[in-house]
Amino acid sequence: MASNKELVEQKAIFAAYLKKKKLKITRQRQVILENFLKTEGHLSTEELYQQVRQKDRTIGYATVSRTMKALTDAGLAREIDLGDSRSRFEPLYKRPHHHHIICVECQKAIEFLSPELEQLQEQVVSRYRFQPVRHHFQVFGVCEDCQEHRPAKHEDFDSDLVFARDALRIALQTEKNGVNFYQSLAKAATDARGRNAFLEMAAEEEKHLRELEGEWETLVKRNKRVLKAPVFLHFDYNELNRLFPSPEELQKRHLERLSLEEALHLALSMEQGAHRFFKRYAEKFNDTRGKGIFLKFAEEELEHCELIQQECDRLLGSSTPLPQSQEPEIGSETTA
Amino acid sequence: MASNKELVEQKAIFAAYLKKKKLKITRQRQVILENFLKTEGHLSTEELYQQVRQKDRTIGYATVSRTMKALTDAGLAREIDLGDSRSRFEPLYKRPHHHHIICVECQKAIEFLSPELEQLQEQVVSRYRFQPVRHHFQVFGVCEDCQEHRPAKHEDFDSDLVFARDALRIALQTEKNGVNFYQSLAKAATDARGRNAFLEMAAEEEKHLRELEGEWETLVKRNKRVLKAPVFLHFDYNELNRLFPSPEELQKRHLERLSLEEALHLALSMEQGAHRFFKRYAEKFNDTRGKGIFLKFAEEELEHCELIQQECDRLLGSSTPLPQSQEPEIGSETTA
DNA sequence: ATCTGTGCAAAATGTTTGCACCACA
DNA sequence: TGTGGTGCAAACATTTTGCACAGAT
Asked: Within 10 A of A50 (CB to CB), how many other CB atoms are there?
């Protein structure tokens, strides 16, 4: 369900590719591209062939096959392997790299995205000094419907909305943790000035939370069905507990009682951690639609850093400059 | 390079499988199984066919193909996909589930194991309520040799030794971190009794470290070439910083100054964390050769827990029982 | 006008199957 | 002695290619 604008953009990319390669824009190639993009899915050559045949009885299998090769070469399609030993293709334009979980009974394939996995891939290629070309993770299993012998319902969802939904969920949870975190700090603060500062921060996070809840409402109102789509963006919510420790976690780490300076210091390093985390997270999306969402999110964490920095200046005096967020951080390379 | 004992075991498994299915043990099936196991690799049907043909000119391609199906069904082989659209097989018996990084130029495939990835798979199937069947992660790229246009050298290593090497490296690093950690705690301890207790713990870890270094020497002496094998067990050494925080990390977490009770409490929770971590880690290996190594390792961490518990009793009196390690812990499920 | 694209059919590639003999148990 | 096994060749499934004609720039 790509927007019309994107269809035009992709046609232009294909045209440019053909021109560069001194190839021709033909009716067949147009029809094939349009049909391929129209169907968000994992079309095999045969399926696509049958589909374009509806539009134009004369188009041959070979042409479909050759055109898909060209589209792949042009960067508009990706050939994927769903384990049924036939070539399948999916649209690539402005879509993040993702993986598939495939039902071995009904062949349904669910897409999911995992920045964690992208990171693992980076570690692996760097460790073995490979120049990366491509990678994929596939999980095969029996889907819920097939386990219960229900007919498999195949629903198509707008992938942009699903992505936005998942990102928003992460954002909401982050803000909730933030509120909790600052309320805990306020409790832990041993003096009144600190308490107030942290309550303010908690209020700030709560304001964000309300805004996000508004966005959530809008999203859901726009498309109720989106709630039924399977999770696309795979996120380990435990990660958040590392960014903003829960009250229990704080206790476990012996941070129930903090001086003003310690508490501010802790808050700053948490916000810096969150900023870095979401910035890196965003980077995993390359030039795809999801990137902006998380960059904005990282930006907000940065604003929090500044707020805290201001509190520090106000409460501690500029005499005690807190350490700046320093890149590079703990790093991704090993010490073997 | 499987041991003779394992060859016999696998033959027995195949025999039992054939018996159960009322199939017959034939000369061809024996030859094919032996050749398949003899070659630790990723044989295609064609390659294996050529190989058994050396032994017995009359064996047909179809028989090889059918036998590999049977071996797969019997659980002795796994069919893998190295992206060249032909069936390839690898031995499965007592080998942990692993993944492949494949050179698109010379087709060389390096195996690597990542418990982290196994965990991700578990999260994914549970999230989508799939009944898991199989999963694999493949990374394609250009290997170092091909990047520099060197002839690809194909070396075979004893997979057991390589696994042991990698496990030992992790263990060594863990103990090193442990020594550091206890030395830091000793410094941070505000009273002399605590300081001594932690120096003792540090010495304990150091003793382990020496033992492990001994094991390392033995391993390397037994087979020097093993050091040249690519990393098999992929481990994120940053993980260790989470188990036993480095001095910098301790400082960052505002734990430079601890009362005896706090310090003991911290040490106990770190050791518990390490125990749990390695126990879970070991579980990812199912019934494979690597499992034992990490279980033993987890066991040692548990002994540390008990040592610390004793210190607590001795120094704090049994009046302050510290919290027990509680399963279930922070858990793997999300809070979306 | 030229040079690439196309459809068709044939080839190529890899795996599976049918069937008449073969050989374990 | 009989059931399942084997090799061979043919069938299958899917993708790729060769070629003569069609059509885009």
From this structure: 13
